[in-house]
Design a protein that fits this description.
The chain has 292 residues and is an alpha/beta fold. The chain has helices at residues 13-24, 36-49, 59-64, 67-78, 94-100, 117-133, 164-174, 194-198, 201-211, 227-235, 249-258, 264-286; strands at residues 28-32, 53-57, 84-91, 107-110, 137-141, 178-180, 217-219, 238-243. It has 12 helices and 8 strands. It binds zinc ion (ZN). It holds the Pfam family F_bP_aldolase.
Length: 292
C-alpha cells in the first residue's frame, strides 16, 4: 500500500465492487464470517460464480482471533481470482476504530448511531479524513437500525428512522462512501409480519433517490428477507447486502449433526461446501454472478 491515493476512493476495492454494482443495478453480498470455514466458503463461492464478494468481520474477531487472523483473511481474500474485499462491520468503540485503522481492511463500518446526529456527523467525518490516507473506505449508519446482533446493544422499537433529506446532508457533510439507512430494518430477526410489515419502502425509495447515485446503500437486518424483497431493495439503490445467518444456518446444522461421527477433515470439507452452496444461492438472488 502506498501513501499516495490520488484516485481515492476509486483506488479502494470495496468502492470498486459497490460502484460496479451501482452502474449495473445489482447487489453484492457482505458475508459475516466467524471462522476459517466461512472465509473459504465465501472465496470459493465467489470464484465459482465469477462474482465479487465482501467478507465481513465483527470487532469480536479483532479481539478473540486477533490481528494475525485478520491479516490471513485479507491475504486470502485478495488472492482470489475475483474481487473479494474485507470489511469490518459495526465498529462501535473508539478504540476499535483506532485498531482497525492500523489493519489492512478495505472498508470499515463506523457505527456511531448511538451518538446524537451532530456527534455522528463529526465522528464519521473525522474517520473518513483519516481513512483516506490509508485507502480505506467508510460505511456509516444513520438513524438507528434496531435489534441485537452479536454484541450490539439492543434498543427500543420506537427509535428513529432515517429522514431522506437528513441522509443527503449526512453524506455531504461526512464524505462517507456507503450509507446504511434505517427504514424499519431490524437486526437479529423480525416480529410477526416480517420485513414486509416492518420496512418503510417509500422511505427507502426516497433515500435512494437522493443519495444512491454517489453513495451506494447498505442493507442490514436480512434475517430473513424474501427474494422479492431483496429485489425491491436493490431497485431502491441497495448495493451491499449484509448476510449472516441466512447463509450460515445450513452449515451450522450440518456441523451440529455430524461433528460426532465424521473425521474433522471430512467434516470441514463437507461443511465448507454446504456453506459455499448457501452463499452461491444468495449470489444468484442478488444478481452478482458472472460479472467478473
Ligand atoms: Zn448490521
Amino acid at each position: 500500500m502506498t501513501s499516495n491515493h490520488s484516485a481515492y476512493p476509486a483506488s479502494n476495492l470495496t468502492w470498486q465492487i459497490l460502484n460496479h454494482a451501482n452502474e449495473s443495478n445489482y447487489a453484492v453480498g457482505a458475508y459475516n464470517c466467524y471462522n476459517n470455514d466461512g472465509i473459504m466458503a465465501v472465496i470459493r463461492a465467489a470464484e465459482r460464480k465469477r462474482s465479487a464478494a465482501i467478507i465481513q468481520l465483527f470487532p469480536w474477531t479483532l479481539h478473540f482471533q486477533g490481528i494475525e487472523f485478520v491479516r490471513y483473511v485479507v491475504s486470502a481474500a485478495h488472492a482470489a481470482s475475483v474481487p473479494v474485499a474485507v470489511h469490518l462491520d459495526h465498529c462501535i468503540k473508539l478504540e476499535d476504530v483506532e485498531l482497525a485503522l492500523t489493519l489492512p481492511f478495505d472498508s470499515i463500518m463506523i457505527d456511531a448511531s448511538t451518538f446524537d446526529e451532530e456527534a455522528n456527523i463529526r465522528h464519521s467525518k473525522s474517520v473518513v479524513e483519516r481513512a483516506q490516507k490509508l485507502n480505506i473506505t467508510i460505511e456509516a449508519e444513520m438513524g438507528r437500525i434496531e435489534g441485537g446482533e452479536d454484541g450490539l446493544p439492543t434498543v427500543d422499537m420506537d427509535s428513529v428512522m432515517t429522514r431522506p433529506k437528513d441522509a443527503e446532508i449526512f453524506v455531504q457533510q461526512t464524505g462517507v462512501h456507503f450509507l446504511a439507512p434505517s427504514f424499519g430494518n431490524i437486526h437479529g430477526g423480525y416480529p410477526a409480519g416480517g420485513p414486509e410489515g416492518a420496512w418503510d419502502l417509500v422511505r427507502l425509495t426516497a433515500i435512494g433517490k437522493l443519495v444512491s447515485d454517489s453513495t451506494p446503500l447498505v442493507l442490514h437486518g436480512t434475517h430473513p428477507v424474501s427474494d422479492e424483497l431483496f429485489q425491491k431493495a436493490i431497485e431502491c439503490g441497495v448495493r451491499k447486502i449484509n448476510l449472516n445467518r441466512t447463509v450460515r444456518d445450513d452449515y451450522t446444522k450440518f456441523v451440529a449433526e455430524n461433528a460426532g461421527s465424521l473425521e474433522l477433515t471430512t467434516l470441514k470439507m463437507q461443511g465448507v461446501e454446504i456453506y459455499a452452496k448457501s452463499i452461491e444461492r444468495m449470489m444468484d438472488i442478488l444478481g452478482s454472478p458472472g460479472r467478473y
